[in-house]
């Protein structure tokens, strides 16, 4: 009990919320960072809620992610209102972390998306294998998550599917710098990347309200899933799966939620 209290007090002192720390759990003290959750056995997704009281939503939540996106049952977004996802990503020096759960690229301030008159700042992006979301019951080889946060603390994640195909030189810049051991970080001041080159040219997306796919499974995360995948080679996929054979949370119930589809997403 006192441990939880101290952690909360520490977060308060640092001016952080529990939700805020969960998206960058490699560098800040939080239950998500210190509790030994994982993807297999007694630390796997079915047990997350039992590992810490902070992870209760992983079991009790009704708006959890990922979900199976059934394209035949989506609704169109209102053209005049929400039907736009503006992406304004700036170049950043490559800063990579192997946090033991995934490879995460931390982003410098100044990049953001705008949707439904809200600005969400890009914090980091990271990878899952296989994909967490499914489309019409099918998984992709991998999924990339761009994690954003608004000034008010709301989260928005843009998901991009990766499928086996052509070698991807943009991904390779990142892959060449992957730290092999959990906890290792690699800061390359002279290697500049831009997250936008990992987005598909066609920006039609599906959107719904969900959660983080890792503990504490916090809800009210806006999801934007690009319908068009990007291609990466089988060798590039293998390089990730050597380190992370399976870091995808299983599909969650849709419950009362509706998935919307953009009709005219902006290309930037
Ligand atoms: Zn993710």
What does this 3D model show about the protein?
This protein is α+β, with helices and mostly antiparallel strands. It has a single domain (61-261), classed as Alpha carbonic anhydrase (Carbonic Anhydrase II), CATH 3.10.200. Helices cover 17% and strands 32% of the residues. It contains 7 helices and 16 strands. It has helices spanning 2-13, 18-22, 31-34, 48-51, 57-60, 169-175, 234-243; strands at 68-69, 75-76, 85-88, 92-98, 103-106, 112-115, 118-128, 134-135, 138-139, 142-149, 155-164, 185-193, 205-211, 219-226, 230-232, 260-261. Strands 2, 3, 4, 5, 6, 7, 10, 11, 12, 13, 14, 15 and 16 form a 13-stranded mixed sheet that branches. It is globular. The model is unreliable at 1-22 and 24-29 (pLDDT under 50). Residues 126, 128, 145, 213 line the site of zinc ion (ZN).
Nutshell version of this structure?
With 268 residues, the protein is of the alpha+beta class.
Classify the oligomer. Answer: single chain
According to DSSP, the number of beta strands is 16
Number of H- or I-type helical stretches: 7
* CATH architecture level-2 label: Roll
Q: What is the rounded Rg?
A: 18 Å
Determine the mean pLDDT: 88
Shape, principal axes of CA atoms: globular
Number of domains: 1
- Class from secondary-structure proportions: alpha+beta
The fold-level CATH name is: Carbonic Anhydrase II
- Find the CATH superfamily: Alpha carbonic anhydrase
Question: How large is the share of residues in beta strands?
Answer: 25-35%
| Ends apart, CA distance between termini | 49 Å
